[in-house]
Amino acid sequence: MDTISIDDVKQLASLKEATAVSIYLPTHLAPDARQDGIRLKNVLERAESELEARGMRRCEAKELLTAAENLPTEMEFWKGLSQGLAIFVTPKLFRAYRLPLAFDESLTVHRRLNIKSLLPAADRSERFLLLALSQNHVRLLDVTRSGIKEVAVKGIPENKRQALNYDSAHRGEQVHEGMRGNLGKQAGIFDEQGGEKDTAKTDLTQFFQIINRALAPVLSEETVPLLLAGVDYLLPLFRQTCSYAHLLERHLTGNCDLLTSHQLHERSWEIMRPYFDRPRREALEKLRAILGTGKASADTAEVAGAATTGKIDVLFVDVSQEQLGTFDPNLGKAVICDQACDGSEDLVNLAMAETLLHGGTVFAAEPHELPVSRPLAAIFRY
């Protein structure tokens, strides 16, 4: 599986060539992956025919599509499949992305790449750290909308027993290493009647202090949120020892030792989704409040024209919809077409590309979030 950032999408949006080929396919995990290769081969044959219909010689069309035509036989490539495949080809660029999004099959040959369908999969640097904490296992994980990976932390203990050197302690005593400011020495703490609870709390405090010191070099240059995951009674005690300034109040409750990385990703993202969706929610509320005032619009032709001049601050796009039209750069005006004609293109894709290129923000929208039967809506800068 691959990832794609909003900056990658901007790069694709910036490419305006005489010929640009965009292919989207739904894909499957093995053993169905071989069928995906056959489907891609069929789409590439259609692309070659369309290029010829546009006046390109067969040998030129084959040369343009060479890199894509080699994919069906590259076994390693198909091992990394996810739910969808996006391929982009121009005379200066070839990109193939295996993404966690089930695309509808489509082929677009135009002067501009079709980037619209990438929007829901684009990573907007929505990233946080997850500390999965238990007495038996400690993991720091780097999490984005599309994936999760463990972070190597030098000096972090595997578990409490290792951290406090229980294996070298004498029977009948609890001898702990890792005392704050006294590393390398041992201090004997003898259990007395009624003192077991205090001893357990002291053990955990020392364990968490060691973890906090190990994390400090890794977290020193981070500003992303840190989400804790673990059983309820551990987390308040760790909060008392944690020195990271961006530790979140919310947390993921449960025994992390029983969860895979995939499960941790799903559950932690559900907790963090509202945090990262806040700018989108606030922009959508603003859009609804100012529609009809001249400061926003859901008229496709008007929005497409405004996008080319940098007038759009925030654009909402229903990527499932298409609106054919033409755009006259001299007049700065877009016109809706009832059907494909010479020079027509998807104005929704045009508006998205131009908004990104002029520094605007683009969000994917569900149909019910936009005015009825409208594929997009925009908040204007002026």
Write structural notes for this entry.
With 382 residues, this protein is an alpha+beta fold. The chain has 3 domains: 1-123, eRF1 domain 1 (Translation, Eukaryotic Peptide Chain Release Factor Subunit 1, Chain A); 127-278, eRF1 domain 2 (Nucleotidyltransferase, domain 5, 2-Layer Sandwich); 291-382, Ribosomal protein L30/S12 (60s Ribosomal Protein L30, Chain: A). Helix content is 35%, strand content 26%. A hairpin with a 2-residue loop joins strand 3 (84-90) and strand 4.
Provide a quick synopsis of the model.
This protein is α+β, with helices and mostly antiparallel strands. The protein is built from eleven helices and 20 strands. Strands 9-8-7-12-13 form a five-stranded mixed beta sheet, with helices on one face. Strands 4-3-2-5 form a four-stranded antiparallel beta sheet.
